Amino acid sequence: SMPSEMLLKIFSYLDAVSLLAVGCVNKRFCELANDNGIWLKLYSRSLHPKWTIWKMKSKQTETVSLGCAALHDKKPGYWKKEYIFKQTSVFKSRVMRLVKFLDPYTGLPCKNKEAMKVSGLSWIIVLKDKNGKEHVVEKPNLSFKDTSVTVLWHGTDWPCLDILSTLKLFGVTPLLPDQSIPPNKNGPRRFSLIAEYHLANLTKNSVVVGADELVQLFSLSPGLLVGMWKEKNEIAFVMANLHYNQLLERSILGSATVQYTPPPNKPFLDDIDSEYGLHDYSLHLDLHGRNCMYLCGSFKCLFCRKRDIENGYLRLTVVNLKDNRKHLPIIGTLGICWETEVFKGNVKDCFVMDLTLLDETGKPFWCFSAPVHMELSTKSSGLYDYMGHIYTADYADSEGKVCVEFVWLEETKEYIIVSLVLYVSTEKVNSWYGTSY
């Protein structure tokens, strides 16, 4: 029963976040909370602190007339949208400035953690069932590595897999971030779709990564690991592996329905070099099990000869089976650690691979973070230095393939990488460099 004029007067004392919240109460509050007069005042205060169009003094007739025109010529909610757009643009620019600082070691942004803290970024997953109902899972555990972050969700009230249709991974940031106030999940937030996964026939169509006594792991591209309870058809946990390359852009610059699309690479054409695009690659490789690191290595001056191009792939040999000087020992027993509220475990013979391949200018060319499983090979080691079982681990996506061979040394209880080969898609190389192979 309160007159609208009184409500507008009360609303005029609210900050932007509170104004957005009160607009969700009912239809009348929503209409009043969109008042152009209130939002124009907020807009002028935040973006032009020294120039306000709300000082009603005789010497400021031009300012007042501008304010009147700005109010009467615009539809309700116009200045609300303008305020949110300007605040969001300033926020994104501030975060993206931090991403421009690159680590010379990896070629990736070196201030990711700082940028995430400034942005208030978090990640959630949304499980959608076949009836259209959505189940939001928040409060993940984070594990940071040199080139990636692993995000783990677990809970006790997850829906049964049989009724689920899709899983969506979102980056979430406050709509109007305020560094002096901690992010509030009940406040207005902005969603950026990172990836969408279809869960129909998950256990049949997905890659089986491994299993222990309690769970079985299934891999969905790109970089998602789903742990299923063995005793029942329910999800135990979900683990997302997010590579730092374009991590913040994908988590912030997309929309709730459309994923962020990075701009195409602008090739630097080199007509003098007849093998442009075939050499001077650099590789940074991490193998980890979420909480423990097994291998961290960098490899320079990788190249491919033209005769090694076949079946649509460039072959880059990183570790050669016949050159034992470059063979790599693995620290610890390979496996992926997992946990829920009650249980913890370690699934052996699998790991998370973080690959960062840089072009000759040091720009990230091919990057991913994904779970990989190992398989026992039928052939035995013919190397004089290593006598033991051979294991293989392969990864493939639309941009290339990775093939790794390990030898298990029973005497020392360790793995040795005796072969590591990258196969890069010629289509990827041609589009990146503007060449033709």
Automatic annotation (TrEMBL):
Protein name, UniProt field: FBX15 protein
F-box domain residues: 1-42
Keywords assigned by UniProt, alphabetized: Signal
Signal sequence annotation: 1-16
SMART domains noted in UniProt: FBOX
A Pfam cross-reference name: F-box-like
Gene assigned in the entry: Fbxo15
Gene Ontology cellular-component terms listed: SCF ubiquitin ligase complex
Lineage: Eukaryota, Metazoa, Chordata, Craniata, Vertebrata
